[in-house]
Design brief:
Strand content: under 5%
Number of strands: 2
Number of domains: 2
Distance between the termini: 9 Å
Mean pLDDT: 94
Number of helices: 4
Structural class: mainly alpha
């Protein structure tokens, strides 16, 4: 099985667990004399099985991510890099939106508001970080499709 298939399977199991959780909550109580639509104990058994499968699959994915090395970096390292780049880009773009927004003055006597940074230079840096993010994400995706799950 390829890593990409394992990631899809993990997402499917997580969706199944969310559905089982909802179904359990719907069958937690009934009016006196009624029976639940589904047997909660059967749902709990199914939930336990799903969690067991998820735990094993996550362990295999994590092991694969840690042990698969490309150009001196493990997939885990690349994932950490991608997550940090994503957050840096988000924060920098938000800051630049704030720094570049115009404050309207209604008369020349009002206080003038200026940006505290060189917006154009920082936009170039944000674009460079975005490019690194895209390239890192593409590499991770490529490795996901070509790496066998351990």
């Amino acid at each position: 099985m390829k890593l990409s298939s394992a990631l899809s399977e993990r997402a499917e199991i997580q969706r199944k667990i969310a559905g089982l959780s909802s179904r359990l909550n719907l069958n937690a109580k009934v009016q006196e004399g009624d029976t639940p639509d589904e047997d909660p104990y059967m749902l709990l058994d199914e939930l336990n099985s799903a969690f067991s499968a998820l735990e094993m699959l996550i362990a295999r994915i994590n092991r694969t991510n840690s042990e698969t090395v490309y150009d001196g970096q493990s997939i885990s390292d690349l994932l950490a890099k991608r997550d940090c780049l994503k957050e840096r880009v988000r924060i920098l773009r938000s800051f630049l939106d704030e720094a570049s927004s115009k404050v309207n003055r209604y008369s020349k006597t009002e206080i003038r508001i200026n940006s505290t940074v060189d917006v154009a230079a920082l936009r170039k840096e944000a674009d460079s970080l975005s490019k690194q993010l895209r390239e890192t994400d593409e590499l991770i995706q490529s490795l996901n499709w070509t790496t066998d799950l351990l």
